[in-house]
Amino acid sequence: MAALEFFFFFLVLLFSAGTQGILGFTNPDDRALQSLKDQWKNTPPSWEKSDPCGTPWDGITCNNSRVTAMGLSTMGLQGRLEADIGELTELRSLDLSFNPGLIGSLTPNLGNLEKLNILILAGCGFTGQIPDELGNLSELTFLALNSNNLTGPIPPSLGKLSNLYWLDLADNKLSGSFPISTSTSPGLDQLLKAKHFHFNKNQLSGSIPRNLFSSGMELIHVLFDGNKLSGAIPDTLGLVQTLEVLRLDRNSLAGPVPSNLNNLTNVNELNLAHNQLTGTVPNLTGMDHLSYVDLSNNSFEASEAPAWFSTLTTLTTLILEQGSLYGSVPQKVFSFPNIEQVKLKDNSFNDTFSMGDSIGGSLQLVDLQNNQISSVTLSSGYTNSLVLVGNPVCNTSLSNTAYCQNPDENPKTYATNLANCGNKLCSPDKKLNPQSCECAYAYEGTLYFRGPSFRELSDSNIFHSLESSLWNKLNLTPGSVFLQNPFFNINDYLQIQLALFPPTGKYFNRSEVARIGFAMSNQTYKPPPQFGPYYFIASPYHFQGTTLQGGLYTSGGGGGGSCN
Fold this sequence. Notes:
- The chain is 10% helix and 24% strand.
- It is α/β, with parallel strands linked by helices.
């Protein structure tokens, strides 16, 4: 009898184990993945197989049957990120970027993923507040929540992420002030290893706290533009000697610019435009790496052009519009070897205007609209754009010249050359591959460069360097990159449409799309240095076997189309 009972017990165990194997619940992570699969629409077709690690599922990386990475960038996923994600406790990397169909709030259970190094949820449709529990992710080095619809304050708990070097919360609807540590609460000032503070394009308000910055920080990009910040620029910014790009434009900052910003000798872009800054035009003579500077639309005291107009020989772009500068425009600025644009419209420059006899070979535009210039000494060495509309000199003998005509608001823009492809056309859902001249389903999206060191877009060599860097660093076929319509948008970001083409056939497969998406969202791809910090937003990808429904490509079932 005892032997018979043991036999039946053994059969039960055997049946139970077999059932678990059939359902795929053979390790602690299977239930969580199955639950995510049930909640999400448009998952990859391989997710219909039974074993996520053994089969494996597209986008899932395992080690000893535990899920260590989930990379599902640009898969067309739809649904919510529910609590089950928190059961994948061996996860090191989670990338769900560029899935705008992922909506709802971020689950606090993300805070259970204590081994996570990389968390990328950029370019999705998430709403609600950033969970305090993200502060539990002590191993996190890369956090990108940009380009969602997140609201509420920045959690002070993020200050506990002591290993973080990339923090991007830009392009959301975050409000409130910057959290600073106290005796009982953490704050962003504790992120001493951070190199990137990207908080631009939110609704952050209040002053920038002095305690936010210190000499022990390693920040290279501080992007606070496009918020509702007020008060003074803190002088502690001048202590962060590693800074390379500083954007505080498009806020309501007031008071004088701290004199010690002049100590930031590594800064190559400084943008303080569209604020309410007062006092004298800041002294920038010490910023001897400065390429791009914009101090427009402030309330600086009336003065002659500052001395650094004649000494910062590294400048490519000088912009100080709607200011109070008077006197003569220093000739020296036009001779700088890299100068491309000088934009000084809506000031009070008077005297005779002369560019001198030594003109920099890169100079393309001098815009002096609406000043008080009454006479001009023209230089035979300069034949590019000079705009004098709105000056008294245009009421004299120059009135009928090109100098006194409104500039072209729609100049010709760059596009990758397709001349080798003749007049070949593609259907609307395909694009012409400039390398093969075949029609294919390109991986498309928009690049946003938030701090380029240039503004002149007429030099095609700049874009050729970007094309070659893309195909080289993304391991694509040389020539299989198409760029078009570069322009500076309302936020002063250089915006470029991008299309990448598969090395063979008409489609990328899912692993290739996920790889490219991760390279762009994780900043593994680095553009040429002059393009500066960037972000990328991918368009939905047309996988083989899918159709466009509601702005996303779907196969009509749970999966998002067959693998190519």
